[in-house]
Structures are given as structure tokens and as C-alpha cells.
Amino acid sequence: MTSHLNTISFLVSQKGKPRSINLCRTRPFSHNLRPFAGSLNKSRRLQTPVIPDSQTFDIPEVYSKTLKNEPFLCIDKFIRRKTRVLVFASREQLTLLFESSIIFMDGTFSASPSIFDQVYSLHGIKYQQCFACAFGLLPDRKKPTYKFLFQELKNLAAEMNLCFNPITIMSDFETGLAEAIHSEFPNCNHVGCFFHFTQAVYRHIQTLGLSQEYNNNEEVRLICRKLMALSLLPLHLVIQSFDDLFELILQAPSNKFDLLKPLFNYFDNYWIKQVDLKKVECFRIRNTN
Fold first, then answer.
1. Which of 29, 34, 116, 123 has its C-alpha lying 20 to 30 A from 94's C-alpha?
2. Is residue 78 part of a domain?
3. Residue 240 is part of which domain span?
4. Model confidence over 9-66: pLDDT tens digits?
């Protein structure tokens, strides 16, 4: 393995390597490596290529192949001028993805290089466990980009004499993604993740300036959590339960009603009338992440 492939775990092992048994006995040992994160990352950056500042760059071979010297960079294309899509996956990972009837998708933004918008991962199911199968670097969160990603994965599946046509896809609630899934997988059951649902509701609680009330007022917090829990009810009970909750705040003092009414309006207009809570699922499958 080349020197610039040193991982954080390797650096940790070198940094924490005891010089002698006696020294190890006399010094306290901490399992918390967070204080060392900055210096460890700095050490690693000294041994890795500089992160590019534009999307026109060459990918070193060591990053495009697995440790078995098999292809790892499976998609590398410009979909528009200076708009690049990269996807990394081994053949084994792609096989698992294409053979899985349930696919999980999610994006992360904080870990993405600045020249890309997000790191996007696709996960498949095997032995009732969820495995990460493909890792993409995407330039934006637009419908055409997601459509391009799915089309390229379909092409890869065809080259492997497989078919990428999942029965169920679970993701967050991005509009562009939902439209791309509907276009490329018209017969697929597209559902939203319960975790992302509760995240979205809580973000709106923050937007409305209710964070302090949510944290300090048990009654307000309970009503908010009951709203989030509506998606776990049988569909025929959702509307009635929502109305019951709204009736509860109608009977509350006027200041509490004024406080919570905007949240109920948002929930009704978006989650009940636009998204539809039947699309929110809570799958109980082990994740290897």
C-alpha cells in the first residue's frame, strides 16, 4: 500500500504506539481520540494529494481501484460543462445493489468536497442488513442529475447482465429526487424515511422560533412529538388524530394556540395534503454504517 493511503486509524495506531511497557503502565489511557482529530487529519493531509479546486482534475489510479486492483471508479462523466458526476463502487457492491429489492438513498453535505454539492450513497439489503453499495459525488440536487445517476446505474446493470429495478426505494423528501425516481422507476414504491421526516418537522419548529418552548415546555414538546408520531398510525386514523390534536390546542390558552397554530398549518398543508403521510416509513433493518 502506498504511503498516501495512510488512514486515520493507521495514524492513530502509530501515534498511540507505546514506547515501552513501563511507560504504558504509568500513563493514563483515554479511548477518546476526538482531541487528536485535528492533528491526525493534518498529518494525513501531508501524505495525500491536494484537494482540487475545480471539477477538471485527474483521479489517481490508487483511488480508482480496490485493494484487489479491481475497478472502483465506475462512473466518471460530465453531464454539463464543468458539471461532473463521480460514482465509486466495486463490482461486488454493484451486484448487491442491483439484486436488492429495497434500496436506501441518502446524501450528506458536510463531508462533501467544496467542488461538489453532496456525497450521495446508495444502500442495498442482504441477509436483512443494509450495506453501502455505491458512493457518488454529485454537483447539485436537481432532477436531471438524479435521472442521469439512475440511467448510468441502469447501463452498468445491463453490462453485468443484471437489472436495476428496485421494488421499494427509501429516501428523504427532496422534490427533484422524488420526480427522478418516479420518472426512472415508475413501478417502484417510493417512501420517505421516518428519520428524515422527524428532522424536517423539527427544523420547521426551529424556523418558527419554537426551539426554546420545545426544550423547556413539556406540554409543547409532547404536542410536537405527537405530530411526528402521526406517521406511525394506520392511515385511516391519521386525519382524525390530527384533528384531535388541533382541537387540543384550540382549548389551550390563547398564547399557546397562537404559538402552535403555524406549526399545525405547516403540517396540514405540507405533510398531509402535499406529501401524504402514507409515504413515510419506519423500516427496521440493521445498518452496517
1. 116
2. yes
3. 195-279
4. 554 455 545 444 444 444 444 566 677 777 877 787 777 777 788 888 888 888 899 9
Task: Give the bridge partners for 130, in sequence order.
Answer: 125, 287
Do residue 181 and residue 215 come from a single domain? no
Q: Identify whether residues 174 and 143 lie together within a single domain.
A: yes
- Closest Cα partner for 176 from 105, 87, 76? 105
pLDDT digits (tens, 9 = 90+) for 209-256: 999 999 999 989 999 999 999 988 888 888 999 999 999 888 877 777
